[in-house]
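ok here's the first one, seq then struct tokens
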Amino acid sequence: MGWLFLLFLLFITCQFNSTCSSSSNSSSSLSSGHLCHPHDSSALLQFKNSFSIDTSSLEVETTLYSNSTISWQKGNDCCTWSGVTCEKMTGHVIGLNLGFGGLQGNIHSNSSLFSLGHLNWLDLSGNDFRGSPISSKFGGFVSMTHLDLSDSNFSGPIPSEISHLSNLVSLNLSQPSVTLDASSLNRIVQNLTNLKELELSLVDMSSVVPDSFKNLSSSLTTLSLYSCNLQGKFPESIFHQPNLRLLDLGYNYNLTGNFPKSNWSSPLETLLLSHTRISVDWSHLTRNFKSLRDLFLSNCSFVGSYLAFLGNLTQIMRLDLSSNSFGGQIPWSLLNLESLVYLNLGGNNYVGQFPEVDSNSTSISSLYDFSKQQLVGHIPRHLILLYLDGNQLNGTIPSWLGSLPSLEYLELGGNRLSGNIIQFQSRSLSLLGLRDNKLDGLIPRSIYEQVNLQVLDLSSNNLGGNLEFEKFSKLPSLSELNLSFNHISLSFNHLNNNTWPQLELLDLSSCNISEFPYFLRASQNLDMLYLSHNRIRADIPKWLLDSGKDSLRYLDLSHNSLTGTIGQLRWKKLEYLDLRNNSLQGELPIPSPSTFFFSISNNQLTGEMPPTICSLTRLEILDLSSNKLSGKIHQCIGNFSQSLSVLDLRNNKFHGMIPGTFSEGNVLRNLDLNGNQLEGSLPPTLLTCRELEVLDLGNNKIQDTFPNWLESLPKLQVLILRSNKFYGEIGFPETNFPFQKLRIMDLSYNRFSGLLPTKYFEHLTAMINLQEHELKYMGEGYYQDNVVVTIKGFEIEMVKIQTFFTSIDFSNNTFRGEISNAISKLKSLKGLNFSHNELTGTIPPSFGVMCNLEWLDLSSNKFVGDIPEQLTNLTSLEKFNVSKNRLVGPIPHGKQFDTFENDSYSGNTGLCGLPLSKTCGACQSPPSSLQQEDDLEHGNGFDWKVVLMGYASGVVIGISVGYLVFSNGTPDWLVKVVGRKQRRRTVEITHRRA
């Protein structure tokens, strides 16, 4: 977890940074024999009065800091003030430690702070200076030895005048929104020759050449460059620094480099290279870094083989090897390391089970049970943190984990663990993560006794039972609780007045809840609340609108039965709001301007879009689909395009024109206006939507010619124009590579005429040779694209669009002429529908090479000739319809053709042979042998079976069921069949929140 890592960084920084200890000493060594210099006293009071004090932050930090200026009073000796240190002889202020002092306001260049000319120690970290620039006046403290401005909300460039502080021993400017250019860094490196500690984490140094650091002072003990956007090769000489104890280069994703190849000895005690591209040679590391106590190598580039043992690093205390794709068995012998308290092996590919332990043995590796292939050893009682999440571990959680007396953080989520959750004998846990496993049974009693527990995540398991929420009342420190998607039935009886003041995240999705948890009325620090997929049938209570009104950022109440109107939303910091799939009524509520995700689809909202929707300028996803909203779509929607990725307004009653305000540089990826009453022509500004992947304008009243100009959109994959008033010929491409990514094209139910667009067919690259075969879906984390397409005669809503799904539907127009052989190039095509047109000529035999074709509908045209025998090669074909044409001759036999029924051929009086009752004459005899194949299953991501039809007796013994039948499981993109067909079946699948 990110917060845990930051806490760890704070811990190790203090451990190796004399600032922590020295600052506290300076505060305690106040002068008791001399009064503060009057000038300095006045300057300090003036400095204090230029800020407001955030007392709430002081309350949070009281255990670490007590450097508030609240105690500063005129008339008192300033040398006795909190955070102030004076020189004993002169009374001048020489030290000012206001770290985490709750200061809020701007520091200007004329601040009285800069008149304290004798300062040699200044700590302003952890305050809020509201984006003030770091003044060049900081470079005027000529006696300064320690300067800490970290985490204090400065912004802009670090002034080169900082390099004038030639006496600096410690410099900490770590914070985002601050930049450091190459010339300023070079001056700092050249002039600050006494530096022992240099901390610039989070400072943007993207323009800096890493070689600049090679000339740093040889006295350097700490170098922290975490997440600085460094790129290029980091100098090897840094590893040779004779006094360097801490080196943090983590999260510089494009930083490269190597350890020195020669043998050397480094005094490094803390090394953090996570998420860099620096080559980690395990043998060099274990040979040369013999003093390491803290080693963080998450998501690194390992050279050579990874060794399970640590060689000389027996003194290691904290080890992070997460996210490196390591496989095989976990090296359980690591638990033998006597000093190891922190072990993170999460996000790898480790397999197997936990080892058994023997309390009488001396080490994990001392015994090996070959029959069970498990390591056997002692209980590692020293562990404080163990992260093994995101692997492939199976079996049960061993009981010895519950007996570790010091264990505070246990994360086993995202594995395949089964059985019951163990009992924990100690009460030391602060975090317990068991999400996404196969655990069952009841939640053990010992969890409710973990009085220090802050984070509990048991989501997505098979836990069951009736659970009263009151059982959590003994956990006063609980800040995150996730019980979602189990088989728990949760009730709030007997809860009385219990509150959890620290609660920030509560996820009770799919917990069979029938009421809103009333205790939330007092949860003023609530940040995330998820109550989706429950049985709440009620209005949203007014008290909930006030809960967390100053803190709540994420709210998910989707998939319930919420009723009534909402009214004004009061959450000031809301960013994510999901109210879809309820029964809400009334007008559209508008959330906070900070909202980036807003979905209220599948409700019963009425009325027009209120103009206040124009205030949501941070929107990335807006989904108002399947309501009864009317009126015009506000033009301001197009102005959101610098942030708006998804605009889904389908299935409403909007009328008027499509907004034409899409501007250059927009990031719109999905525009779905299907099922409204929009008219007019397409706005040319759609051409500026260079990120557009899905354009669905079906079922409107748009009157226009075919928009050839859309062919140049480089990422367009889905184009649906069905059921409008488009007219005229499609014509020829205007570019060399038209619709190069297009996979779904639906022009059905319009007034298109002329010849089929053969030239377009020749260039539909994504349908010619689609390389994607993995089960992936279009969309993004918070939203997955969905469309309605006609598949084998059924209108099917695909709530997820598989990236290898392809289809063309030109049905119900007035296209004429013959089908060109060019269309047979589309070998990745799954479905083709040319029905209800005026096409002539013969069915091309070349269709036989379209081996992925699963449905082919050529009905209601004017085709002549026979059905080509080559079509029997289409072993994936599950739906075939050539009815109402002028075809003649015998119907081909064998393979898929033995599964089609009469209605596939009706209206062709010249056809004969099974399954029709009309037999063929001697000159029209069908092929002599009936070729039946034992396995007609078609893989490639679709799971369906075809049962052959018996011809000998003429009795149907099976039917083809294609996409609409479960085999090993229904395709999860398929939600419901919405077309009008006899004996249609509706399949609904509820998908969990991503």
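and now the second one, same deal
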Amino acid sequence: MSNGQSQAADPFLQQQRQQHAKLQAKRQQQMAQRLNEFKAQYVAEYKMHLTSPAQIEALYDTNDGVKPKLRSDRDFINARLLEAGLPLGGGVPDVTPTSPSQMTLFAHSEAATRFVHDLEGTGCYDTVQVLFGNSKNREDGQNDNAIDVTVKLKEKNWYKLYIGGGVNSEDISSLGDGGDASGLGALGVGGALPKLQFETSASLLNITGFADVSTASYSVDQTGASSFKFIHDRPLCSWMPKQNAFYEWLMPRDPNLIDAGEREQQSNAEMNERQVFVSDDAQYSLGGGSHTTLGIHALLDELDYESTRSYKEFSRSIGLRLANHCRGAARGPGVGGTNKPSVSLPESMAGPYLYLDWSIKLRDLLPRRHTEFPFALDCSKEVASQSGTTLKHSLTGGMYLNGCFTDDRFDPTMGYDAHLTCEVAGPPGDVGFCKVKGGASWHWPLELLKMFVFDVPDEVPINDEDPVVIGATIHSSFHAGAIQPLAFNGLCNNGSYRGIPLSDRFYVGGPGQLRGFLPAGIGPRASKGGATAPGGDSLGGDLFYTSTLAASVPFPRYFSSLRQNGGRILGFANAGTCVSTSSLGSGSLLSLASTPALSQIMQSSRIAVGGGVSFGLPMGRFEATYAVPVRFGPRDARKSLQFGFGFSFG
């Protein structure tokens, strides 16, 4: 072979060698990737037997060398570990005979994450860590190959001071006298928009060692209305001695207390009664005896209704609340920052929330005074007749899903939400009634509708650039409420308006309920009103419903900053009414199922259509809408351009 041929072959050989080297490197990379996958799978499925109880230690800065003394109760921390699904001392039983064992490292990591999220949600800890380590030779009879569980806690200071501002929170014992309506808009309890306020508070944290919270706060808003609140919230088990039978029933059973003979005799169903299994945060927030709380709340509050009803109300209340958990609020400013006790508003809590609330409230209704004639009243005769003091004694129970079955609590595009409350008031109070209200909202992405409704095959991909489909969502909601007066043989409702005091009736309107109408803009009205309530004082109804059908899409791509911050463009149609049963020719709710009554309710409905923009912010939801009322009454208070802000939807 000549030198020219040899030189011509060299580049070819070099190219072959380079391709072979690239192929070898690719094969090695693939082998390393598969090996890492096998390792990850082995680690995830690795069986781990955990000892019980867990070791509880203080997490401290090693530089100063000072180890603080923990206030947290060790039995309480171990109970939270068991309720989170961490199988201390023997494992959590399978839920079904076919379900895989929950003894793997992956399952332990999920349970530990739930535990950390839960304990940090109480607002009593700066840092929570869960560590798994090899156990030394044990003398307590447990498996020598078992793994120790160590919980390291960095507790917050036992006191906390707060000075700042935010959005005015509503009366913790009112429990939502108004009805939120849309599943899309801001919540306005009683039809009132939230107000800015200045607030100062002092809190005591984890004094008993059970993640308890005690808070005293004072606030005043821009109208001068002030309020003072006291809250003490703690798990129910902390109110009783540990040797008490009810305490043992509430708390998860320590597996070490179950001997070997008893273990063999227990069926899977019976073992499930002793230990707690949870599969996700939604189920976890409902279960566990250490999550059952009993809180005390007291309130001195001034409520300003002069803009819609020409009166102010001064209330003093005290009550108790039994709730299912105390993980704290999901988000939001106010007392305790991002973590509020479980006697806060039910709709502000994180996760599904069940509660039973007893309260007694003393209320003073003060009609608006005339600005030029101090001895004259500037209100309707209906409001003037209700002036004075009333005592309300009530028991309320309710359930709030709080958006745990949606993809985003404040900007939902998929899933459903719901709430239901029932309040009964009676002796020894002056007020007697039974009030029920609730509602639900649904959110369907257009991609799913296109796939299931229009039968698009699964293998046909949806174009990510399709501006009509991607991100578009259909929303719907329906909310309703009714009140039935209860006289209790003449002991209650003496002198009240149509059997129900004005403060307990339903008021509908505003961006969070019925867009296109002002707060308390529809419903029964007096023939006249004060200077700040043109068109007549709103007298409220004892029956209401609101319904919304809407569609929303993200902002176009060239509005990248708005799109990334959850901005959406929406169009909607909403309808609703607020009436008195006496106007329907009946004083009983049982007769409302008749065709004539239903026909009158539908004929009294108000309708508005419009559009706007919304933003799902970290602390809530903001929306700006423009609505055009297409069906309204001659005395309805209407407003097309509205701004709303709220914390809960449905």
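notes on #2: Residues 29-156+253-287 form one domain. The mean pLDDT is 77.
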